[in-house]
Amino acid sequence: MLNNLLNSFEPISLDEMDNVKLMDRTDTKYTFHSEILPTVLEQLKDSYRVLRINDTYQSNYKTLYYDTNELSLYYKHHSGKLNRYKVRHRSYVDSNIGFLEVKFKNNKGRTIKDRIKNNEVLLQWTEEARHFLAKKTPYLPDTLVPNLWVNYSRITLVNKTSNERLTIDLNLEFIKGDREKSMKSLVIAEVKQEKNQPSRFKELMKQLRIREGSISKYCMAVALTGEQVKINSFKAKLIQLQKITQHDSITNSR
Which residues, in sequence order, are CB contacts of 86 under 8 Å at separation 6+? Predict the structure, then answer.
C-alpha cells in the first residue's frame, strides 16, 4: 500500500538531493503509529517529492554508534546538556556506501553534521578516522568504542517550494550484544530545515494532534537495551513510545 501511495508522488533523484543536504539545520521530530502513515502520505503528495533509488522508495540504513565505556555521550544527553555529540558509522545498505559521522547539537538548537566517506564499518580507528574525530569532537578517539546498532528503513521527502527535507523512519531495530528491541509499529518523522519555519507536514501533525517532541534513536536504544543505565529523564518519552508500540517486544537473542 505504501508503494502505491509513494508512486503518486513526484520523484526526486539522489543527485538532485545534493541541493538539500542541510548539514547545518534545525530538526523537529514527531512519533506516531505506522497505521496512520498512509493517511499522512496521502495528505503530503502535492507538497513534497519522494526520493527514489533504483525504483525503490524505502532505503535501508544500518548504524553503529560509538560511545565511551562510561556512556559519556549518552549521559550528556540524559542530563540535558547542550553542545553534545553523537558519533556513528552509517551504512546505506542499498547503495553500498558508508560514512563515519559526527553530529553536534549546539546551544542554539542547531544540528551540525560532519562526515567522511568510509564504506567499511570501523571497529578500530584508521589514521584518517582518528584525525577526523580529534578535529570534530572533544573526545580522545581511543576512548570511543562500538556500543550498539540502530537499523531502520527510511522514506525521504523533499518540499517542492522550500529548503526542507522530511525523513520518515520505519521498522526500527536496536541491537546491543544479545539484546534486541524491535519497534516495527513506530514511525519517527523528522523535519529538517535551514531555520524553524512553517511546513505542510508540521501543519498536518497539528491537525492530527500529534505533538512534536525531541527524541534520539541512540538514547532510546541505550535506554531500551541497557541493563544498568539511568533512564529517569527519558521515562515520559519511553512511556509514550510504549503506548504506541505496546505489541512490540524485546528479546534476549538474535
Answer: 65, 73, 102, 103, 216, 218
pLDDT digits 0-9 by tens, 157-210: 999 998 899 999 999 999 999 999 999 999 999 999 888 888 999 999 999 999
What residues does each domain of the chain span? 2-247
Closest CA to 12 of 38, 49, 37: 49
89, exposed or middle or buried, with CB in 10 Å at 0-12, 13-18, 19+?
A: buried
- CA 138 to CA 68: how far, in whole Å? 12
How far is Cα 219 from Cα 147, in angstroms, rounded to an integer? Answer: 11
Give pLDDT tens digits for 231-244.
Answer: 988 998 899 888 88
CA distance 231 to 136: 27
Q: Hey, which CATH number is domain 2-247, 2.40.320.10, 3.40.50.300, 1.10.1660.10, 1.25.40.850?
A: 2.40.320.10
CA dist 99 and 93 (Å) reads 12
